[in-house]
Write a structure and sequence with these properties.
This protein is an alpha+beta fold. Helix content is 38%, strand content 36%. It has a 16-stranded antiparallel beta barrel with strand order 1-2-3-4-5-6-7-8-9-10-11-12-13-14-15-16. The chain is elongated.
């Protein structure tokens, strides 16, 4: 399940207008204005709606609202009902549909009311605006909120709801300004003030300002530890920062206090998935979908979960050309295809893959042409991968690879890999019939989404007797982040040494590099699950080779990342790099493309 605000712009929250149900209960009594049977029937509908608000059971709540809807429908069709009673019943019916989470029906009812010449009051207009927002029509929602504010500029509930419409319209500046105004205007410590502080924190979280959101919510929870929405929002931000264990610690007491609360349950299901507790996550989502089949946040996460029953594919290719130096070949090409099968049970997923790479050398053309099948096992943040593969050309026709990853807590993860025939054996060596095995291990520490470090070691044993040992260390930190712009910097240090020098491929006795890379992602356009991001990458550093010395290196890249839908992604780009091998400078130009999705 997607966990970050950038990939997942809107997390589950309360309905945008927190007073919608209160307005429903007040308006439900309006049908009591008439006398006789209409009064009694309206009274019964109002009682059922008020009773629905008080019960914890979702099934019972929905049953009571459905009973109220049936009474209101009968009342609307009653020959005894006059025009005023019908109008008020229609308004109450719309609000009852809103409470039932049937937002498509709310929009249809609203548009029918307008077409028939009704003039709905403000509380009905607000409910319709909320429904438009839920149906992903934020501009319509803004128009209705503004209509209410034109008559009552200080209507707080409407202003509170409007920040959601600004968010859905990608207008983060106005959303932040509005929530800050609401905080300033409310009496300190009042329920309105607490609600505004939550909104002001969460709008910053959606704008990728997670540190600030966390600080605001922690201060609010310290001031008001019994505010359940504040605690749930804090748990959500913890999750987005990459801390599922910490988030679960905050959420579990809320689940014990309010086990039927939909927001708690949806966040809980997402955290179970993050923690690799897949059986429990699936059960939780299935029950949520049964209880809230029409709510779009539940529908979205349920659809994501159902993707485990589908096939997934990833295919990509790269073409590059180099000048001057022949150590790594010219006119090099590579492509790969991976097909992931539907999950077997909760933890196993088979896959098949094909990898191909070739390049031209002075001695001729060399390639890898590998196909393999394997299986992944994931559980409780442990990941085991086993694969058998074969090469359709050259030596070592068959081989195996294995890997084990383990994420410990919220900050540490470890990974190991082994390949009996590694594609890291230089392609040029393949012309001489060489192969080899490779083993590697790595450890990663992540403070949060904006700071992480990694160290790794590897050993490549080539069949000519040469063993190349290498170490890598890197630190990534966030330079800038906002709603649509994220800039990261990465410092990489590398060192390797060979057990014997020389050979039919590039093989310095020892070498090292130190480089700093800046990556800027500009979210240029987004419409819910569809988006386009432009990526700019610049890197510079130094490369040292024993007996040769130190020379400058650099690279530049420009890429597009398209999220075509919830299931399909397209990524392509071009780049240029300049390096030095054996004292000779090489410039390489490349183009890459990748498509992946679920079908």
């Amino acid at each position: 399940m997607q966990t970050t605000p950038a990939a997942h712009p809107r997390a589950w929250q309360s309905w945008p207008c927190i007073t919608a149900l209160a307005a429903l209960l007040l308006s439900a009594g309006a049908v009591l204005a008439d006398d006789g049977t209409t009064t009694e029937r309206g009274d019964r509908a109002a009682e059922k709606i008020r009773a629905a608000e008080a019960v914890d059971s979702i099934a019972e709540r929905n049953r009571l609202i459905d009973d109220a809807l049936a009474i209101l429908d009968d009342l609307i069709d009653s020959p005894d009902a006059d025009t005023e009673v019908i109008a008020r019943s229609r308004f109450d019916r719309l609000l009852a549909l809103r409470a039932r989470e049937s937002t498509a029906a709310v929009v249809a009812e609203w548009e029918a009311l307008l077409a028939e010449g009704f003039e709905p009051p403000a509380w009905v207009t607000i409910a319709a605006a909320d429904a438009y927002l839920d149906q992903r029509r934020p501009r319509h929602a803004l128009e209705l909120y503004q209509r209410v504010l034109a008559d009552d500029p200080e209507h707080r509930a409407t202003r509170q709801a409007m920040y959601w419409a600004y968010l859905e319209s990608e207008d983060f500046r106005r959303a932040i300004e509005l929530t800050d105004e609401l905080v300033e205007e409310a009496d300190p410590g009042s329920p309105e003030h607490q609600q505004a502080r939550i909104a002001a924190a969460m709008v910053r979280a959606y704008a990728n300002r997670l540190t600030e959101a966390q600080q605001r919510l922690e201060a609010l929870v310290d001031d008001h530890p019994d505010n359940r929405e504040a605690v749930r929002s804090l748990a959500t931000v913890y999750r987005w920062r990459g801390w599922p264990h910490r988030a679960m610690e905050r959420l579990e007491p809320l689940l014990a206090e309010a086990p039927e609360h939909s927001g708690n349950r949806l966040l809980h299901a997402g955290l179970l998935d993050d923690l690799g507790r897949y059986t429990q996550a699936g059960d939780a989502l299935a029950q949520l979908h049964a209880d809230h089949p029409e709510h779009r946040h539940v529908q979205r996460d349920w659809a994501y979960w159902q993707e485990r029953r589908r096939w997934a594919i990833s295919l990509g290719g790269e073409y590059g050309d180099s000048d001057g130096v022949q150590e790594f070949g010219t006119r090099d090409r590579s492509w790969d295809v991976r097909l992931d099968a539907p999950w077997i049970g909760s933890h196993l997923q088979p896959y098949a893959r094909i990898d191909y790479a070739d390049a031209r050398f002075p001695e001729g053309e060399s390639d890898y042409d590998r196909y393999g099948v394997g299986i992944n096992y994931r559980r409780n943040r442990h990941h085991i991968q086993l694969e058998g593969h074969a090469n359709r050309s050259g030596p070592s026709q068959a081989g195996v690879s294995a890997g084990y990853d383990w994420q410990v807590g919220d900050h540490w993860s470890f990974a190991t890999r082994y390949e009996s025939f590694s594609t890291d054996v230089p392609l040029r060596g393949r012309l001489q019939g060489l192969d080899g095995w490779k083993a590697e291990a790595a450890a990663r520490w992540q403070a949060h989404e904006s700071l992480s470090a990694r160290i790794g070691v590897s050993r490549l044993a080539i069949s000519d007797g040469n063993v190349r040992s290498a170490g890598l260390a890197s630190v990534r930190h966030r330079i800038h982040n906002s709603a649509h712009h994220v800039t990261d910097g990465t410092l990489d240090a590398y060192y390797s040494r060979a057990s014997q020098s020389g050979g039919p491929y590039y093989n310095p006795e020892s070498d090292a590099s130190l480089a700093y890379l800046v990556q800027h992602d500009w979210l240029t356009w987004r419409r819910y699950e569809r988006s386009m991001t432009q990526r700019f990458v610049l890197g510079a550093g130094a490369y040292w080779q024993e007996d040769i010395g130190t020379n400058a290196i650099g690279l530049a890249r420009y890429e597009h990342l398209w999220q075509l839908s919830q299931r399909w992604f397209l990524h392509y780009g071009v780049g240029a790099a300049s390096r030095v091998y054996d004292g000779d400078r090489e410039t390489r130009i490349d183009g890459q493309i990748r498509l992946q999705g679920v079908f």
